[in-house]
Write a structure and sequence with these properties.
By secondary structure, the chain is α/β, with parallel strands linked by helices. The chain is built from 7 helices and 5 strands; from the N terminus they run βαβαβααβαβαα. The protein has a single domain (3-178), classed as 3-Layer(aba) Sandwich (Rossmann fold), CATH 3.40.50.620. 54% of the residues lie in helices and 9% in strands. The protein has a 5-stranded parallel beta sheet with strand order 3-2-1-4-5, with helices on both faces. It is globular and about 45 Å long.
Amino acid sequence: MKTLLHICCAPCSITCIDTLRGEGIEPVGLWYNPNIHPVTEYRSRRDTLIQYAKDVGLELNVIDNYGLREFIRAVYPGLESRCGVCYDMRLRKAAEFARDNGFESFCTTLFVSPYQNHELLRETGEKIAAEYGVKLLYRDFRPRFREGQQRARELGLYMQKYCGCVFSEEERYIRKKRG
């Protein structure tokens, strides 16, 4: 099965790639993350993924779009529901890319994170898959999250401290300040 794997960052991709390859699926990666802020964070994550993809022989497509303004316009004024909007933006682009490039299915490394709203993410992916006529290859990668993070540390990969958007960075700052 020809599968496109939307990738949020290299550390999250490790066990997702391994799991799919273990099933006999050779994924093709897609970098598209206009939510990531600031630009230095965006570049660190993108560049780390580009190098990791080379290291593991993963074909990677990069849609290089530091889309802060696009992301803010999409989530404002409903900041409290921003994660759903963010999932929609990224999965919609993955489904579009998959459809336009002959992929049978698409998946995302967001399914590995215990910090994401997994049910909303899956519902969003299934809705978009139906719209674009490309199958969502759903996998719950969460049981291997810690393993992937540990391997990323061992490999010396850049490890982010927050989801990526300016609002998650703000929440991290507030928690840190309180703590």
